[in-house]
Design brief:
The chain is of the alpha+beta class. The longest helix is centred in the first third of the chain and has 22 residues. A hairpin with a 2-residue loop joins strand 5 and strand 6. The protein is 22% helix and 19% strand. The N and C termini lie far apart (44 Å).
Length: 172
């Protein structure tokens, strides 16, 4: 009995070590909806709509199709996730309260908080590009390395990443 228990303990420790090595690079992990909650893409319009989707592009398309211009066009908008490859419409509830700090080209600081699905947005009319971005959460922070010329964060920070983005906007 004793040798089998030791073997099981050793196997568990080895497996744990492998998992720790994998977690060192969050962008090397597989896609997953961490919350297990998916919002319907047809859900009513609200600040919690369409997590993970390109907010500004969708609003611009909606305004063009309706001719009404009632969908706000944001200075910047996106979704912060707890893992790097979350699918569209996955609610990022673990990111609620994350602070998104954007400094525009004129040195002005804009601060938004992620809502219950991880979404954030700002409708400031006098925003100046390019900008820098930092996400703060529970005493940690993650900084975007390059200045950006588009505020449609989910346009590049897709499930698999686009335009040199490695994946989703990720909690630090």
């Amino acid at each position: 009995m004793r040798p089998r228990g030791i073997c099981c303990l050793a196997a568990a420790l080895l497996t744990g070590c492998g998992e720790a090595a994998l977690s060192d690079d969050p962008f090397a992990r597989p896609a997953v909806c961490t919350s297990g909650v998916t919002r319907s893409p047809n859900a009513s319009e609200s600040p919690e709509m369409a997590p993970g989707r390109a907010c500004i592009a969708c609003h611009a398309d909606s305004n063009a199709m309706s001719g009404e211009g009632d969908a706000p066009i944001f200075a910047f908008a996106g979704t912060v996730y707890p893992s790097a490859h979350e699918p569209d419409d996955c609610a990022a509830s673990a990111a609620e309260g994350a602070e998104i700090r954007i400094t525009d080209a004129k040195g002005r600081l804009f601060v938004e908080l992620a809502n219950a699905v991880g979404n954030f947005s700002d409708e400031s009319g006098n925003f100046a590009y390019p900008y820098t971005a930092v996400i703060r959460y529970r005493g940690r922070e993650r900084e975007m390395l390059d200045k950006q010329m588009t505020g449609d964060c989910n346009g590049c920070h897709t499930q698999n990443g686009a335009m040199s983005a490695p994946g989703r906007l990720l909690l630090p």
